[in-house]
Design a protein that fits this description.
The complex is a heterodimer of chains A (about 850) and B (about 625). With about 850 residues, chain A is an alpha+beta fold. Chain A has 21 helices and 24 strands. Chain A folds into 5 domains: about 220 residues, Rossmann fold (3-Layer(aba) Sandwich); about 170 residues, Beta Barrel (Ku70, Chain: A, Domain 2), CATH 2.40.290.10; about 80 residues, no CATH class; about 70 residues, no CATH class; about 120 residues. In chain A, a hairpin with a 7-residue loop joins strand 19 and strand 20. Chain B is of the alpha/beta class and about 625 residues long. Among the domains of chain B are: about 240 residues, 3-Layer(aba) Sandwich (Rossmann fold); about 40 residues, no CATH class. The chains are: A alpha+beta (about 850), B alpha/beta (about 625). Strand 12 of chain A pairs antiparallel with strand 14 of chain B, so a sheet runs across the interface.
């Protein structure tokens, strides 16, 4: 009979005789692989095993997984047998049977070696009695007893045969674990441990326990050593979970309108795969320390505190609203971040709320919480069949289910078998719509027939609905065209024949099909076996949880490294890598992939990717069809330089968020960069070859003037000079040029116009000084400074350039103004200081 | 049944893996439709669907815009849409947002978050236009004898975007025109230059132009006449083209009929989920980006509201942590550890249960028994940095249908992080296809994910009908761990098998119902529960009655053709089945209410009711089942 999970009482019988207080050295592995030697008593070491076992019960969280702890060797006596019949002294019922909690662990931590010599057989009889009394007539519960002893003390050999009969009667599983310590360990052939100089007592005791266990019914008893037992506890193991069988109906055809032509087969479904997640950690906080205010407390007070109390936190969800109605703007990102203000929020019960679904900018209230549901009928409806070879693995959306014919009905089994096997021989699969119960939302999926020994069945996987598919477009990898429409066959993006051949060898060399273990026929199997592949996250988290729960200080006993079993598939098998070394090296050389250097510049989020100032010849063929294609030796080098700018942006992004989730427009940015480059190069050979930029070819039709402005962004200086020459709209011209400068400077890609803008700044200042627009300038400059340095996006680069010009573009001071007959509130010192206080805060890309 | 909210809830906020799609909602998308209103766009044409009905390009473009709005409003309710008409004499009123727009352009709908009045306005316009053939020509009168410079169109788009689009949004102009040479007039060169320049301005402002060029037999669209010198090359070379001509006609140039489906491909801006190194071997690394091409589309988001009588106010939810409902604990103060177990019978756990039954752990003041948030993260990643690490190659036969737990990702080379990525990726892809190989890899896609073993399935580039090009790349299919595998139920493993004659009869109807070259067609199956919800949401937003009778569930089998093709074969099979000896093994209807109830339960039928009801139900079960 298979064992039920839970429904178990485990008695731990712990020997605390004085001999268990002997110190031993235990190797404690550190996470970095080093080993630290920690001194602890035999008892402490043995209790680690007890605690790990108890912790496992807590972890599994079953109320019916219970345990009790009985000590022997204590001075006092407290146990039910003694109370009833006397005797059985120095046996102490320490933790009464119950579902363990962290308190149980804490209590186990308080166990110390005692003064008397305890008798294991006495403890065993007390353990059996205590357990039996507790369980009463719960016959189906599993009974386990774990005895931990160093075997150093004499055992009174009486009554033990009676105990054996009783244990066989009750089917008690006994584990005897000896406390390992140099010189006193029981031999354990499996662990490769054979102790040479054991004491006579220990040798006799060992013999006794082996005899004892042999007298138990088969599979009820085991004797082992603690070191091995502890290692086994941390070995990853998967408890095969059986999923519940769910009733359903497999249907083909319209049962209501064509009952004689339609099929219904009664089926049971169960899970074939179920995504397992690491057990979650619970949240704790040091009590009395929840509040931030308390941080302010004088730390000297803490010295008096010898203990810290941590409480397990619980989560509450509150619903609050702002009765003043000043709720937050949905477009929070557009407006400036306001300093958090304490708003008067009112808490409200969830029951009093109405749910509103978002429909565009508005919410549609749904009074009953949800719209009426689509009426559906429970069943797995077959919609049609198609060849298995056309299955697309990438469409499988999740967990796999089994579909079995009703195990109680041979007729249903025969019906299912005939269809499944017909599909199987024809290599067909079925499209099937799955509804778990009446009214449930339908899922589409694929039924694939399987035959396995004595049964024919289906597996089912969910497939996407039209709504679940995203059709993104991607550029072709190898069909590149130049602008004339000619196919490009040689390009850094296209692998050469030589590279293809290197890849061919690479793929062959790294073959895993014969790199695994040998099977029964001595043939090598493929490397990587799913059934032996443990989710490292789950088991590592579990190990960490257990460890923190049983140690008393993580600083003294840090978490050991992961069990090697968890990492065994993390690297390709060594012999394959060795075999492939040549092919790997050849491919590495042939493809010559280079990491594009990361540069810390402000990301595009900040709005500024600088166009490079010098004329790079880099061409990305599929990006720059207007250019003649040059394939030179330096191409790939140039290419990587080109990409540096663009990648820098994504790098910057990656700093804050390790995954790239930006829309795919950086390639365009890149391109634009280059265009700018190409066009601003004075050496562009011909007009056709050149893409005009706004600054270079002002088009009469479009001067970039914003509505109501007399200065455009396209040729601001020309516009400005023209207006100043007319002399009638000076104030307006000054205001507008300031506006244009600010606009252009804060735009993306302004780097190419830095010099132009600096010129504008100088012209503007000159006019301001001469035409008595001094205040306009003195207001504009700090404003621009703020915009460049504080705002996001800013343009620190521009400010750096401006600062380099220094005093000649700084604030207009009193003395300067006076010379021109104007007025200013600014002292010379202040004017001097404007730029000197500026220290570039970030690395700025300067070419 | 559990409400939508229940099964959509994320159990544990630390569990980032579930939140794959959260970024979709995070970023806003803005689309401006720029629709050409010139004479030929207004020209009446036969409706392809209905006889004796006339339509025109402008109407169909507006219909497509309306469809996109209706989908966007649900799929991306925070996204914004606007509509601009060009080559029209209609001017915006002085008070309108578009009053300063260039001549010849008209802002029909300024950019704003989509809302129901906006969609309804468009629907009404379209309805009227369907009934009155001249309505659109009157509403958006075409410019006569000349065309507005494309430079002005782009500039207008720029201004409209500037006024209406949030800074951080993705911004796109869907340009719809059938004129391949708008500036054939003298001076056209100048206009071409201006168009190019203004388009650069547009792109600088982060706006992408997605052209939808309408081609028809009488007016084919030749991109090389004007647009190839204007449009930014990324727009042109983005997509693959089969027959080797310059431009990807299939995507850029479309028949009016395909306009909507072409737009649907571009409805959601392309966003990468991760950008990480792909390590082929030690010191042999390329860059890839990962995309979610298959992701469950859930119902839209909702909020809770308080009815204050005069108005509805949003109720925000917030999660707080406390010990025993006491003071809120600041997040920075939280440490992590093992649950302390349930308190069963408080009297047994003594001093560790305080007065209110809370559970605490006491340690000495200077020791540490809990983990920080960062430590916890490292337990999940096992200290790995995000990357895909190739382990080796296997035969394609190793790919097993039942080895699945999660949806796949699609990866594509990223030349921007490693130069040479494209050639290497492409060579690997082709070699694996040639050798019928799949790859085994270990992947940590994001810093807060857990490592997972994956199969890399190569996909060759392929063009399909309808203009969809299957891109070249790898599908990254996560494999289950041993922890994810469930045991087979013993009681199901011994089952009666059908005799060959019965299998033959089954084979006949199975083959009749087989699509020989078929595959699973996602496009044929819109999610009915989602559509049902959305239809009601839309009706409610439009203040219309929702009629469930008009709702069609496209996922149901097509019964009529099924019975027509295979009905008689199924009947034959049923006959043979009942003659099979296993039929005699059928469990007799059990006697006694309790046994009847058990029987019904085993058939998944209700078990409530008295004995007579149960007897009835057992009887009818045998009537309806085989």
């Amino acid at each position: 009979m298979t064992e039920r999970a839970g429904y178990t009482v485990t008695m731990f019988l712990v020997d605390v005789s004085p001999s268990t207080g002997k110190l031993r050295e235990v190797d404690v592995p550190l996470p970095n692989g080093e080993v630290q030697i920690v001194e602890m008593t035999n008892l402490e070491w043995a209790l680690q095993y007890v605690k790990l076992k108890v912790q496992e019960m807590i972890y599994n969280g079953r109320k019916t997984d219970q345990c009790g702890v009985i000590l022997f060797g204590t001075q006092e006596t407290s146990n039910i047998v003694n109370r009833k019949d006397g005797g059985y002294e120095h046996v102490y019922e320490f933790v009464p049977i119950g579902t363990p909690t962290a308190a149980t662990i804490a209590k186990i931590n308080s166990i110390c070696p005692a003064e008397e010599i305890g008798d294991p057989v006495d403890a065993l009889i007390v353990g059996v009695e205590t357990q039996d009394r507790y369980l009463g007539n719960k016959k189906t519960w599993t009974r386990k007893i774990v005895m931990l002893t160093d075997g150093e003390n004499p055992i009174e050999l009486e009554d033990w045969e009676v105990a054996i009969d009783k244990m066989n009667d009750l089917k008690i599983k006994l584990t005897v674990v000896s406390q390992p310590s140099r010189g006193i360990d029981f031999d354990d052939a499996d662990f490769g441990y054979k102790e040479e100089d054991k004491s006579t007592i220990k040798r006799a005791n060992e013999e006794f326990f082996h005899t004892f266990v042999d007298r138990l019914d088969p599979d009820l008893g085991i004797v082992g050593n603690c070191a091995f037992a502890i290692e086994e506890v941390s070995r990853p193991e998967v408890k095969q979970t059986k999923s519940a069988l769910m009733a359903n109906v497999l249907r083909l055809g319209d049962v209501e309108n064509h009952p004689e032509e339609a099929i219904e087969i009664v089926v049971k479904t169960s899970k074939c795969t179920a995504f397992a997640r690491p057990k979650s950690f619970k949240k704790f906080a040091r009590l009395g320390d929840e509040d931030e205010d308390i941080i302010m407390r004088n730390t000297d007070d803490d010295v008096d505190e010898l203990t810290a109390n941590y409480g397990q936190l619980s989560m509450q969800t509150q619903y609050v609203y702002d009765p003043s109605g000043a709720h937050e703007d949905d477009d929070g990102e557009v407006k400036e971040e306001e300093p958090e203000q304490k708003k008067e929020l009112v808490e409200i019960d969830k029951e009093d709320l109405v749910r509103g679904y978002k429909y565009g900018s508005s919410y549609v209230p749904v009074p009953d919480g949800n719209f009426p549901k689509l009426e559906t009928k429970k069943g797995i409806e077959i919609c049609g069949f198609f060849p298995e070879k056309n299955l697309r693995p990438e469409l499988s959306m999740g967990e796999v289910h089994y579909v079995w014919a009703d195990p109680a009905s041979p007729l249903q089994q025969v019906a299912m078998s005939s269809i499944a096997e017909a599909m199987y021989v024809r290599l067909l699969v079925a499209i099937a719509r799955w509804v778990t119960k009446d009214g449930a939302e339908p899922k589409m999926g694929i039924l694939k027939p399987e035959t396995h020994g004595t049964v024919a069945y289906f597996t089912w996987v969910q497939m996407p609905f039209a709504d679940d598919i995203r059709k993104y477009t991607f550029p072709s990898l190898d069909k590149l065209f130049n602008h004339k429409g000619e196919v490009v066959t040689k390009h850094p993006y296209i692998a050469t024949d030589e590279q293809m051949s290197a890849m061919d060898d690479f793929v062959d060399a790294l073959d895993l099909m014969d790199a695994g273990e040998k099977d029964e026929e001595e043939d090598r199997k493929p490397w990587y076996d799913i059934t032996l592949s443990y989710n490292p996250a789950i088991h590592r988290v579990k190990q960490a949880l257990f460890h923190a729960a049983i140690v008393q200080d993580l600083n003294r006993q840090p978490l050991p490294p992961p069990h090697p079993e968890l990492l065994k598939y993390f690297n390709a098998p060594r012999k394959v890598v060795k075999r492939a070394r040549g092919a790997i090296e050849a491919a590495r050389t042939a493809f010559n992939v280079k990491e594009v250097p990361k540069r810390v510049v402000r990301g595009r989020r900040d709005g500024h990717v600088r166009a490079r100032d010098d004329g790079d010849d880099a061409l990305l063929l599929d990006k720059q069809p207007n250019k003649r294609i040059k394939l030179s030796k330096t191409q790939s080098q140039v290419l990587s330089r080109t990409q540096a700018d663009a990648s820098a942006k994504s790098q910057q992004k990656n700093v804050t968020d390790d995954s790239e989730t930006e829309p795919e427009d950086d390639e365009q940015d890149l391109l634009l960069n280059q265009k700018f480059k190409g066009s601003s190069r004075p050496s562009s050979p011909t007009d056709e070859d050149r893409l005009p930029t706004p600054s270079q070819t002002p088009v009469p039709n479009d001067d970039g003037r914003a509505p109501g402005r007399i200065i455009g962004t396209v040729a601001p200086l020309t516009d400005f000079n023209k207006n100043i020459a007319h002399g009638d709209l000076v104030t307006k011209a000054v205001e507008d040029l300031a506006f244009v400068i600010r606009t252009v400077v804060l735009r993306p890609f302004s780097a190419s116009r830095v010099d132009e803008m600096l010129e504008c700044m100088q012209a503007l200042r000159k006019v301001c000084l001469e035409e008595d627009e001094i205040d306009a300038w003195n207001e504009f400059l700090p404003d621009l400074r703020r915009a460049c340095l504080d705002d996001d996006p800013g343009n620190e680069f521009f400010w750096t350039k401006l600062a380099a010009l220094g005093r000649s573009v700084s604030l207009i001071s009193k003395s300067e103004a006076a010379q021109q007959g104007g007025k200013s509130d600014i002292s010379d010192a202040d004017a001097e200081q404007l730029y000197s206080t500026f220290v570039p805060s970030r690395t700025v890309l300067v070419n | 049944m559990a409400s939508y909210e229940d099964w959509n809830r994320i159990d544990d906020e630390d569990d980032e893996e579930l939140q794959d799609s959260s970024w979709y909602e995070g970023k806003k998308d803005v689309i401006l439709f720029a629709i050409d209103c010139s004479e030929s766009m207004h020209e009446p044409r036969d409706d392809p669907e209905y006889e004796d009905v006339k339509t025109c390009h402008v109407l169909r473009a507006l219909e497509a815009a309306m469809q996109i709005q209706k989908r966007k409003v649900i799929v991306g309710p925070s996204d914004s849409v606007g509509i601009m008409m060009f080559n029209t004499t209609r001017r915006n009123d002085a008070t309108d947002q578009g009053s300063e727009i260039k001549k010849g352009n008209f802002v029909f709908q300024a950019i704003s978050t989509i809302n129901s009045p906006k969609v309804q306005e468009l629907i009404q316009l379209i309805d009227t236009a369907r009934q009155e053939p001249d309505f659109l020509r009157e509403t958006f009168p075409p410019l006569q004898g000349s065309r507005v410079p494309m430079g002005d169109v782009f500039t207008s788009c720029n201004w409209i975007m500037r006024d209406g689009a949030p800074k951080t949004a993705t911004k796109r102009v869907f340009l719809i025109t059938n004129e391949d040479n708008p500036h054939s007039v003298p001076g056209g060169d100048r206009l071409l230059t201006s168009a190019r320049t203004t388009l650069i301005d547009l792109t600088q402002a982060g706006i992408v132009v997605e052209p939808f060029f309408i081609s028809s037999e009488e007016k084919p669209f030749d991109v090389s006449r004007f647009y190839s010198s204007v449009l930014l090359p990324t727009n042109l070379v983005e997509d693959d083209e089969e027959d080797g001509t310059l431009l990807p006609e299939a995507v850029s140039i479309t028949r009016m009929e395909d306009l909507l489906s072409q737009m649907r491909f571009r409805e959601v801006p392309k966003r990468a989920l991760f950008s990480i190194p792909f390590e082929l071997a030690e010191n042999f690394v390329i860059g890839v980006k990962g995309y979610g091409l298959v992701t469950e589309q859930k119902k839209g988001s909702y909020k809770y509201f308080v009815d204050l009588g005069d108005r509805m106010e949003v109720a925000e939810s917030r999660t707080v942590y406390s010990y025993q409902g006491g003071k809120q604990v600041d997040r920075s103060k939280i440490v992590y550890g093992m649950g302390l177990g349930e308190v069963v019978g408080g009297d047994k756990t003594e001093d560790h249960v305080d007065d209110q039954g809370g559970v605490t752990r006491t340690t000495s003041a200077n020791s540490r028994v809990f983990y920080t948030a960062d430590e916890m993260k490292s337990f999940r990643t096992l200290g790995l940095e995000p990357k895909i690490k190739l382990l080796g190659f296997k035969s394609r036969k190793e790919l097993k249908f039942e080895h699945n737990v999660k949806h796949s990702f699609f990866i594509y080379p990223d030349e921007m992080t490693y130069s040479g990525s494209k050639r290497t990726f492409s060579a690997l892809l082709k070699t694996m296809i040639k050798k019928k190989r799949i790859a085994l890899a270990l992947a940590l896609t994001r810093r807060n994910a857990s490592p997972v073993f994956c199969t890399l399935v190569p996909q060759a580039e392929k063009s399909e009908e309808g203009g969809w090009n299957e891109p070249a790349g790898f599908h990254l299919v996560p494999l289950p761990y041993a922890d994810d595998m469930r045991a087979t139920p013993d009681q199901c493993l011994n089952a009666a098998r059908a005799p060959d004659e019965l299998k033959d009869k089954a084979r006949q109807f199975v083959e009749k119902l087989t699509v020989k070259n078929g595959s699973y067609p996602p496009d044929s199956y819109p999610n009915p529960a989602l559509a049902f919800h959305n239809a009601q949401l839309e009706a409610s937003a439009f203040r219309e009655e929702f009629d469930p009778e008009n709702f069609e569930d496209l996922t149901l089998p097509t019964y009529e053709s099924l019975h027509k093709r295979a009905g008689h074969l199924i009947k034959d099979w049923k006959q043979a089945l009942l003659e099979d000896e296993s039929a005699t093994l059928v469990v007799e209807p059990p006697a006694g209410s309790r046994r009847k109830a058990e029987f019904l339960k085993s058939k998944g039928e209700p078990v409530a009711g008295n004995k007579a009801v149960l007897v009835d139900r057992v009887g009818s079960w045998f009537d309806t089942h085989i």
